[in-house]
């Protein structure tokens, strides 16, 4: 694809007069950031649609009036954001990715049902299941009255695959005396449906971080790929914490959606 007509005009695409070096735009940003912003805009407003092939690097170099390495740096950013795929070989090139489906942060079990209904293949793999004493960090999050005498908790670790691709790793920490039935459930059952009905509300903190060694292996990603980390705490009818659930997601496979409905008087 050598046509750049679909690309938004950018202040970098200046012409050279009398052999002068083209100037960078006035946005006060590095050239590669402006190029990435320009291409991202074309993808977000559907000027470039999923499956579309971007112009070749040499065409983008001419269009934006920059060096090839600058264009490659801009494409690196979009690839890390999960917006494009770059393929090698005779049928290779740079293509706009199909945007990943979103899961509802506070109702994961319902989101899984929606994914299946939409034709996605969903698989939950059991990784670990054990009963341990809560460590200090978990005890504090569960607001244990006496951290010196932490409760026994189920520690459940599962991997979530979407269409055969590792999408998330979930780690749940649930007090045994509150979730006794977990000990009799199939280890391969999705953990969220057991947690959500027992809570009146949840809180969550969302951060972006690089993958550690274990998550990098489980999610099959490189060390520089950013992951979405969601730390969630569920509260019971007495408004006391009942469980902790940490979910680490690949943003190129699955994204997070948060909805907030106003309570009607």
Automatic annotation (TrEMBL):
The question of whether Electron transport is a record keyword is answered with no
Keyword annotations: DNA-binding, Transcription, Transcription regulation
Xref: SMART domains: HTH_GNTR, UTRA
Pfam families assigned:
GntR, UTRA
Could you cite one Gene Ontology molecular function of this protein? DNA binding
A GO biological process of this protein is:
negative regulation of DNA-templated transcription
Q: Name the chain's protein.
A: GntR family transcriptional regulator
- Annotated organism of origin: Corynebacterium poyangense
